[in-house]
Specification:
Bound molecules: iron/sulfur cluster
CATH class of the largest domain: Mainly Alpha
Strand content: 15-25%
Helix content: 40-55%
Number of strands: 6
Shape: elongated
Structural class: alpha+beta
Number of domains: 2
Strand order of the largest sheet: 4-5-1-3-2-6
CATH superfamily of the largest domain: Hypothetical protein, domain 2
Order of helices and strands: HHHHHHHHHHHHEEEHEEEHH
Number of helices: 15
Distance between the termini: 72 Å
CATH topology of the largest domain: Endonuclease III, domain 1
Length: about 350
């Protein structure tokens, strides 16, 4: 005898009915376009819906299809991605678009295995595209879906454990195949439930279509489940930024092709907490004639695995005439039009109001 299904047919149907009735209007929803599903899913990884909404609209307006994404200049792509963080996602999107143009006639294949082999597309995104765009019975288990299913089944295992995710993926796939539920609605219904009623801090079980057989609700365990082990503490890195400028231009630098914030623009920075004297010496070492130094506000930026604790100086120099890559000299307006990682937003804002 096979194992018990994750949900009954009626539960799946109630969930889908609840979704159809209550779903939020989102610009990427119900467009029937696999490219839209793909771009939105990549943008939404580690980023809140509200932060994505406007960026997504602008991105699709400017890059309406896979061909335009494959051909966009890197700097423009970074500008469109500005503020979303994790810029490697944007680079992977473009790389994947180029593969799709050369190998798939500029379309996303309606095949889960083929999707998983594409650059930057893992099991979650492949499942989301296959089910939401192509109505194929494949699961897309993100953190929201994991939370719903762990609470529903009363699972107390660590949801960071990849085996937990794999097991739910297999059970969902089995359910979708056997129940005849519409994969597109079903997958989005589970995601929507996790983002709205079955939220991290509060579960609104009174309105939930799964309440009848939900273990966490029946046993009052929504605060204990899901269990998630603690991540290792982030490493703290002291950094000093040098906003080198003359009366007209600011010097920025392009970071190297690999590692943190690869290929992105930054204010000149160095590890360690430099005194004003050391900051002046560092500026002179780079070939700029420093005239005056001023301390700017401190700031902090949190990456997934480390934190930058930044102190910053503005170093006013004599006229900057010669400059070579990876350094660039930009006027204030150009500075505001260039894509910078959010790590430097404090300083961009500082100059935008001055
Ligand atoms: S009943 Fe409550 S805990 Fe269970 S799935 Fe619904 S919202 Fe989540």
């Amino acid at each position: 005898m096979g194992r018990k299904m994750l949900l009954t047919k009626d539960e799946g149907n109630s969930l889908v009915a609840w979704y159809r009735e209550n779903k939020r209007e989102l610009p990427w929803r119900d467009t029937g376009n696999a490219y839209h599903v793909w771009v939105s899913e990549i943008m939404l990884q580690q980023t809140r819906i509200e932060a994505v909404r406007e960026k997504y609209i602008r991105f699709i307006e400017e890059l309406p299809d896979i061909e335009s994404l494959a051909a966009v200049p890197d700097d423009r792509l970074m500008k469109l991605w500005e503020g979303l963080g994790y810029y490697s996602r944007a680079r992977s999107l473009k790389k994947c678009a180029q593969t799709l143009v050369s190998e798939y006639g500029a379309g996303l294949p309606a095949d889960h295995e083929a999707l998983k082999k594409l650059p930057g597309i893992g099991p979650y995104t492949a499942g989301a595209i296959a089910s939401i765009a192509y109505d194929l019975p494949h699961a897309a288990v993100d953190g929201n879906v994991l939370r719903v299913l762990a609470r529903f089944t009363g699972l107390r295992d660590d949801i960071r454990d990849p085996a937990v995710r794999k097991s739910f993926e297999a059970q969902l796939q089995e359910y979708m195949t056997a129940s005849g539920v519409r994969p597109s609605d079903f997958t989005q219904a589970l995601m929507e439930l996790g983002e709205t009623l079955c939220a991290v801090r509060s579960a609104s079980c009174g309105e939930c279509p799964l309440q009848g057989r939900c273990t966490a609700f029946r046993k009052d365990l929504t605060k204990e489940i899901p269990y998630r082990s603690k991540l290792k503490e982030r490493r703290i890195v002291e950094r000093t930024l040098l906003v080198v400028r003359d009366h007209e231009k600011f010097v920025i630098r392009k970071r190297g092709d690999s590692g943190l914030l690869a290929g992105l623009f930054e204010f000149i920075g160095t590890d360690g907490s430099l005194s004003p004297k050391e900051a002046l010496q560092e500026t002179e070492k780079l070939g700029f004639q420093a005239m005056k130094i001023m301390r700017l506000p401190d700031s902090k930026h949190i990456f997934s695995h480390l934190e930058w604790h930044m102190k910053a100086y503005e170093v006013l120099c004599g006229e900057i005439t010669e400059i070579r890559e990876p350094y660039f000299a930009l006027k204030k307006k150009e500075l505001q039009d260039t894509a910078f990682p959010s790590a430097f937003q404090t300083y961009l804002k500082w100059y935008s109001v001055r």
